[in-house]
């Protein structure tokens, strides 16, 4: 059975995930990426972690099949970080010497997806007026 485990932070209990923040369109690509990840043969976990000591906002640890996200980010940064790490997970592990090139590819893909979703939302809002 395929699965994806989401681990919440105790500090976040009672915090609404859905709000009127402008990053809501990021949910669509995030949900699609999560669905793709769930179709993998082994389960993945997404968990909060304080990554400030590393100066990271998120990390994908392939041997553990775990994505860590710093929960102290604002909503828009959190959504972008989660999407970024999901793309890493979907692309798979690489040799360490390819890390910089991979990071550039994933960063560009993340920004392209986020920009596209925000543009679609703005167009939809404009069409309703």
Layout: helices, strands, pairs:
Elements: E1 4-6, H1 27-38, E2 44-48, E3 58-61, E4 66-69, H2 75-91, H3 99-128
Parallel strand pairs: 1-2, 2-4
Antiparallel strand pairs: 3-4
Helix pairs in contact: 1-2, 2-3
Describe, in plain words, how this protein is organized in 3D.
The structure is a single chain. With 129 residues, the chain is an alpha/beta fold. It contains three helices and four strands, in the order E-H-E-E-E-H-H. It has helices at 27-38, 75-91, 99-128; strands spanning 4-6, 44-48, 58-61, 66-69. Strands 1-2-4-3 form a four-stranded mixed beta sheet, with helices on one face. Strand 3 and strand 4 (66-69) form a beta hairpin. Helix 1 packs parallel to helix 2 (75-91) and helix 2 packs across helix 3 (99-128). The radius of gyration is 15 Å and the shape is globular. The model is unreliable at 11-23 (pLDDT under 50).
